[in-house]
Amino acid sequence: MMFITINTGCEFICFLAALIFLIKDKDTAWKLFIPYLLLTCLVEMTGVYMRKVAHVPNYNLYNAFLMFECGVTSYTFYNLYKPFKNTGKWLIAWYVFFIAMCTTELVMTHFKAFVSITAVVMSVVFVLASLYYYYLKLMDENFEQLSFSAPFWWVSGALFFYFGSTTCNIFFDYLSSLKPINNQLSIRYYIFILLNITLYSFWSYAFLCRYLRRKSSS
User: Fold this and answer.
1) What angle in degrees, to the nearest 10, is found between the helix axes of 187-217 and 6-22?
2) CB 42 within 8 A of CB 36
3) Contact at 8 Å (CB) between 3 and 190?
4) Which residues share a beta bridge with 14?
């Protein structure tokens, strides 16, 4: 039961949504979320085990996972931009820069800490990427009902999560100084729970919208 938390629960529900709604999707970028969310669940449960049972640091696990998170999220943005413009060179340049930055921070910390600076930069880039998608959508002359737009809900979930996590990281010292709730868990922890719920709720709905669109066009 120790592996069942609000975060792992949200991730597993989102994985099930991806498995149900995207299993027959022909778009690689969308279908990629099935293995990615499965990996997310496995990493999260492994992280819980390492922290609560094995009592060993789990930062290297999350450092490795960050590579996948950045890759999948970046590729999804690239895929969403394609109807408007080709950003293939941006994708390659950004990921090369990300790998270089992550490797540099790992070496500087002697592989003994989470790459927090890299994570913050990644979050800022994804916030900007989300706003850029909104701009492209606003300038697009083709009408689309946003309440059933899978890309819109996916981007909205990413924007809320990465903007919220960036803000938490910027004010990390202040949030850490606040008195923990129930003398156990910090306020920052509860904020991240809320961000995870928002992210995976929006993404699950985006997968549903993707499924409904495919069914209506078949």
Assistant:
1) 10
2) no
3) no
4) none
Task: Please name which of 136, 124, 131, 125 lies closest in space to residue 82, comparing C-alpha atoms.
Answer: 136
Q: Nearest CA to 34 among 25, 46, 43?
A: 25
Residues 57 and 65: their CA atoms lie apart, in Å, by 15
Q: At what angle do helices 116-139 and 150-170 cross, to 10 degrees?
A: 140
Between CA 126 and CA 122 the distance in angstroms is 6
Say yes or no to pLDDT of 170 above 80.
no
pTM equals: 0.93
pLDDT single digits (tens) 90-117: 999 999 999 999 999 999 999 999 998 9
| Residue 116 in tokens | 């927090």
Burial call 14-29: b when 16+ CB within 10 Å, e when fewer: bbebbeebbeebeeee
